[in-house]
# Entry
Amino acid sequence: MFLVLNCTFFGGAYNYEFKKKIQSPIIKLDSGGKGIFIFEIFDLVINNEQLPILEKLKLEKESNKFIWVTDDLIQTLGHSLNSKEYMFEISPHTKYAQNLKWE
# Structure
């Protein structure tokens, strides 16, 4: 899985393919009110110009622009099951997008 923290380095036009819309139930917000969250999930469609950039990024571990993570790290919101450490801050909406459902 590839998480982009700053996609300005990815050059060219972006093409996306709609995957799914996810909606939360009515939930109590931190502000005390109630709300619903709606997430529209899209897959990035890589073009021929962007493919070599992505392949080059695969060789790098991480930077201040992106991180590579496994599905396990997404499911635990950044907590490594192997090292028992908090590796990265991964927001719950990333997990919802990965699973294509509200959990």
Remarks:
- The two ends are 19 Å apart (CA to CA).
- The beta strands are 2-4, 15-23, 27-28, 34-35, 38-45, 66-68.
